[in-house]
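Project standup — Tuesday

K.O.: blocked on the structure for the chain from last sprint. Re-posting the sequence here as requested.
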Amino acid sequence: MIKATLFPTAALLLVGNWFFSSTEIKPPEVIALCEAKPIESTGKLKSTSLTARNAEKRETTILLEIVPEMMKFDQDTFSVKAGDQIILEIDNLDGMEHNLLITKPGTLDKVGAAADAMLRDPKASEKFYVPEIPEVLFATKMIGPQELYTLTFTAPTKSGHYPFVCTFPGHWRMMNGIMKVES
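H.V.: unblocked you, prediction finished:
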């Protein structure tokens, strides 16, 4: 009876997620724990990603959603212009907390290993599971379920592929992507 009830529900969730989901540089030795400001949650999946650039202001706004019960972001890549002001809106549509870190190019595995090592630190949750290493450029606090947060920073001036990742324990291997910085 329970299996018969759960199967259709799980199937609807999977099909629904598939159908509706869309595909200031700090010195390296400093981790920027950027201010994450709570904003009213949308609580809904959007059918398209939102990326808007104001060339006159050199400002780019990006909506990045956390897909419910999938341990992933709705985008695995997004592009920004070097030196632009970035307004990254992170909508946590999931039922658990997540964070978001932006790291130096080629450092995803190192940052992930440092995040795993934090499990031995009794104060890891107070540090929002953000490793204190120079590879981390920008980071949020933990974003609660159904919350929308805004992370504002200046994109690196050097073009490249900058990983973004959730370092809540066990998440980094699945919850990551690339911020492409273009000249």
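K.O.: great, moving the ticket to review. The chain has a mean pLDDT of 82. The longest helix spans residues 2-20.
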